[in-house]
């Protein structure tokens, strides 16, 4: 089979398209014929060796994928060969024509969801769901600020929050991205490149502030975020590319909190409830992954360059 292989840590160019043996499933395992693989910023951090989880070389990147069950171990009952599925991590990596996964990492994909959309389910939607429900404990009628609202996690957060009855404010750096955020459910969207947009957000809330902030780039925004919080407000840090200085008094004066969250720390119980919620949302159309760019598997280096560029728009996927 064809697969992207990383043999040394480094830039996007270390990823090569190679022929590798097709794995076979053992007990409790599933072999998925991958039709689309999702590309996430975390994939780029792993490729450099600087991610939260350092892969053992050589390896095939990718945690998100969607396709059809090719074969399964004899004890696997919840999916069968020929069924459409999405993956939530895997044993062998999803930037490949086939991926070997534990049965617990494979989930049914509703017919209304395309394979490209399915490749954008796990990391974006599980991250958004976990941040809003397990950490922020967000409630209907609360106000949510989503930084990077036009990216994969941002769009997922907007859809989840809109279905829950929250008022949603988003930020995005392009007209196209802001239009997308509004289309997917944001009530108000600001250009984070314009000086003073934080003051506009405060005025919008009557100077009360926002109840929950989902932060994708905390090294840039976190210090200013704390000044936007309402009393007992919560910030969930989802992404950061460096260190940041904050004033603890901005937290103290509001009885506010900052949570740091890493999706890979999800417990089995949290995962079960998360995937049940995602399945329901995908089935009823509440959750609708947005695919911004489809590339060929061999174009993985280009995908890694684009996924960390400013101006995010939906999900980038690799087609096999």
- Pattern of helices and strands: EEEHEEEEHHEHEHEHEHEHEHEHE
Which ranges are low-confidence, i.e. pLDDT below 50, for 5 or more consecutive residues? none
Please outline the major beta sheet.
Answer: 7 strands, mixed
Question: Architecture of the largest domain in CATH?
Answer: Alpha-Beta Complex
Explained architecture:
With 320 residues, this protein is of the alpha/beta class. The protein has 2 domains: 151 residues, Alpha-Beta Complex (Quinone Oxidoreductase, Chain A, domain 1); 141 residues, Rossmann fold. It contains 10 helices and 15 strands. The strands form 3 sheets. Strands 3, 4, 5, 6, 7, 14 and 15 form a 7-stranded mixed sheet that branches. Helix 7 links the parallel strand 11 and strand 12. The longest helix has 17 residues. It is globular, with a radius of gyration of 20 Å. It starts with a strand and ends with a strand. The model has no long low-confidence stretch (mean pLDDT 96).
